[in-house]
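Run log // design_07
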């Protein structure tokens, strides 16, 4: 297996509507799509040619079954635990009169247990969701997943700068590194919270603790510290529509490529192109293969 991801598997519900008067009803556009950081990363790794598997917990409901089928259709092995006592995690994204609001229900994701995971992960790369690390009650199972990794690269992503601030930057770095993470992924804001720096300097500082450290810079591309050497790539010009999930695509493609031995500079370029492709669309997943 080239990439194994552990963590969040969600259903996204996107709603676009005009201003709604209190208690009123309107017509709008409602779109349902599979998502979640771990599912997104695995699907994009598979799109890039990697073999991929995702471990997570979903509800014993329609959403859970749909996610299992959707992952399998995209060439990802769904290793999902079904929880009859909790709903599948759901993210509600509401765009009302141009203003965007989000409501997250972790659902079954928050009930992931060590028993849902194998005793070890043998793969080219393993990626554990930062949301698992940064939020109770799943911090311990996230760290246990890192300890069970037997991969060339064992990664964790920073997920959310407010959550990192609340958890503590030093605690995030120390606890994940001590559990076995040797790769970390962060966008510029997350990297700044972790290190007090951005860009090259942030990657360099993170690289002092992790063998692989990536700082994702959106339209500016990305910078990666690998075994102390810095590698940079620029992003191509795009018309951004929605950047949601772009970082997940980047993480999955990069680790999936590195996990199967792709040259690091080439892997970084592929990851940036995948992230740009997400940002230039309204979907977090690539188009399905019609065949």
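design_07 sequence
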């Amino acid at each position: 297996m080239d990439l194994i991801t552990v963590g969040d598997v969600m259903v996204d519900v996107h709603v676009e509507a005009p201003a709604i008067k209190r208690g009123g009803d309107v017509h709008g556009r409602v779109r349902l799509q599979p998502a979640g950081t771990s599912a997104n990363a695995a699907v994009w790794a598979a799109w890039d040619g990697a073999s991929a598997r995702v471990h997570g917990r979903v509800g014993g409901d329609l959403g859970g079954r749909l996610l299992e089928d959707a992952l399998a259709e995209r060439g990802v092995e769904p290793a999902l635990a079904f929880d009859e006592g909790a709903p599948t995690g759901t993210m509600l994204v509401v765009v009302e009169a141009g203003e965007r609001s989000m409501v997250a229900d972790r659902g079954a994701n928050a009930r992931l247990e060590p028993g849902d995971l194998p005793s070890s992960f043998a793969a080219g790369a393993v990626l554990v969701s930062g949301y698992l690390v940064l939020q109770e009650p799943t911090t311990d199972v996230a760290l246990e997943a890192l300890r069970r990794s037997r991969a060339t690269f064992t990664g964790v992503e920073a997920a959310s700068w407010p959550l990192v601030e609340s958890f503590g930057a030093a605690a995030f770095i120390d606890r994940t590194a001590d559990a076995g993470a040797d790769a970390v992924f962060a966008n510029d804001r997350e990297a700044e919270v972790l290190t007090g720096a951005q860009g090259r300097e942030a990657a360099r500082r993170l690289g002092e603790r992790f063998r692989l450290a990536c700082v994702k810079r959106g339209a500016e591309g990305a910078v990666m510290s690998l075994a102390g050497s810095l590698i940079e790539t620029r992003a191509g010009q795009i018309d951004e529509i929605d950047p949601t999930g772009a970082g997940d695509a980047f993480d999955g493609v990069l680790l999936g490529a590195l996990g199967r031995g792709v040259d690091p500079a080439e892997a970084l370029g592929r990851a940036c192109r995948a992230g740009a492709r997400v940002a230039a669309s309204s979907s977090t997943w690539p188009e399905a293969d019609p065949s």
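The CA atoms of residues 123 and 252 lie 13 Å apart.
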